[in-house]
Amino acid sequence: MTNLIRWNPFFDGFDDDWGFPSLALSRQNAFMPAVDVYEEKGNLIVETQLAGIDPEKVDISIENDVLVIKGKSEKRSEVEDKNYYRKEIRSGSFYRSIPLPAHVEGNKASAEAKDGVLKISIPKKDAVEPKKIEIKAKK
Q1: Could you give the number of structural domains in the chain?
Q2: pLDDT tens across 51-80, in order?
Q3: CA distance linking residue 137 with residue 131, whole number of Å
Q4: Domain interval for residue 71
Q5: CA distances from 132 to 84, 126, 129, 135, 137 (A)
Q6: Is residue 114 part of a domain?
Q7: Is residue 3, in this structure, part of any structural domain at all?
Q8: Could you tell me which residue, 107 or 20, shows the higher pLDDT?
C-alpha cells in the first residue's frame, strides 16, 4: 500500500540546504500567496487571493520588470482559553516577488481588490526596434 502525502503549497517537507529539518519545518508558517499571471488586451494581469487582508496593508511595487507584493495580515482577536483541535488560520507578514514575462510600464499599473481577490493590471511596453547605427568612415 502506498502512503499518500497531501501537498501543502507552504511546506515542501524536505530539509533545507544545510540539512536542518527544523528550518524546513518553520517554512510551514510562511505565507506566500499564489498568483495567476496572464495577458489581456496588451496588459499583463496578476491575480492573487488575499481574503481577509486589508488592501490598505498591502504594498505593490514594480522595478526592473519584477512585481513585488508584500503586506501584513493581523489577527483580529485571539482567545487564549480556547481548546484548539486545529489552528491553521495564520497571521503575519507575507512577501511575493514575481518576475514578469515581458517588459512593462510599471508607472502605469493599476490594482483593485474585489471579493478577496487582488487584480493588478500592468501595461506591456511596446517592442523596441533595434536602432541601426551607420558607421562613418574617415579618410
Answers
A1: 1
A2: 888 899 899 999 999 999 999 877 655 566
A3: 19
A4: 33-76+90-123
A5: 69, 18, 9, 10, 16
A6: yes
A7: no
A8: 107
Cα distance between residue 47 and residue 64, in whole Å: 20
Question: Are 88 and 17 in contact, with CB atoms under 8 Å apart?
Answer: no
% of the chain with per-residue pLDDT over 90: 40
User: One-letter amino acid identity for 112?
Assistant: E
CATH number for the domain that contains residue 66: 2.60.40.790
Establish if 12 belongs to a structural domain: no
Measured in whole angstroms, the distance separating CA 100 from the mean position of its chain's CA atoms is 11
Residue 111: partners with Cβ closer than 8 Å, 6 or more residues away: 60, 118, 119, 120, 121
> Which residues are registered as beta bridge partners of 104?
124
Residue 137 domain-assigned (yes or no): no
